[in-house]
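Bench notes, afternoon.
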Amino acid sequence: MRRIEGIDLARGLAVLGMVTAHVGPDTPLLEIADGRSAALFVVLSGVSIALMSGGARPVQGVRRVQARVTILARAFVLLGVGVALATLNVPVVVILPTYALLFAVAACLLRTPVRTLLIGAGLVVLVAPPLRVLLERRITATWNGGGIVDLVLGEYYPALVWIGYLLVGLAVTRADLGAARTRTRLLVGGALATVLGYGSAAVLTRVLDAGPTLARLITSEPHSSSTPEVLGNIGVALLTLVACLWIAERWPRAVSPLAATGALALTAYIGHLLVIKAVGSQVVWQPTTAGWLAFLIVIVGGCWAWRSTVGRGPAEWALHRIAARAADTGVTERSAVDPT
């Protein structure tokens, strides 16, 4: 299966959005990237996992076993990389540990029907945010000292809530992203989710005299992981995905630099954290327009040049090799699908 440039384009925008959230200047326009970019990144992880396991026609038998092992192997590697990056102590919350946990959960959902995935996503959006607040209160400081508890209930990327993004990505890909009917539904659903999510937060925060707990549940502030924010982020992610698919199909050459960035997303993400470590945390605490543009230009230019001359990125190559070896059951590589 050849790569889908529109998905790479969307992933490229997600990575550059996260870089912008980390080193971009403090302007209202660029603040749009905060939270939404990471949410798009996780939605696209669901898309990639669905593609690895057959897309709209899920694989069966040995190939499903291979896909599941491949996904679990990737989760294990991503967790190790995420923990290693966290030890750099840069002033950035690393998403990869939560990303890895979501990959592991997704390995158990390869046979799940679209309807069930969407119902599950809806329940997560409605129930998980207040449940997270409740669990935070009940878990003692001893239990909440790090590890799996922080991954599930943590401040920035709580897996209990963020699994909703993953379920949406799985569902829309199982429904066939190439079908015009699916894309139309995604446009309508994305627009409704965006308006309902951010609109409800705008109304409720003005109408209600909310205390600290209720305020957390009705805000749409980035990384609040509230129902309005998650719903609005899902809407933005769906609209972005459909737009990227449409644009990449019509102007593939024009978007090839950004698509290359998406194809080398893991390399770009790791690389920008290493650069932050090398140049110092002032690029995060005291960001400048020049520094932000330098990051974007180097990332896009480097990824475009690498993909044009070498192909798969170094981090992606290592991840692919490890996962391929883990899933080797003697079936020919020609039967495997690897869109990432």
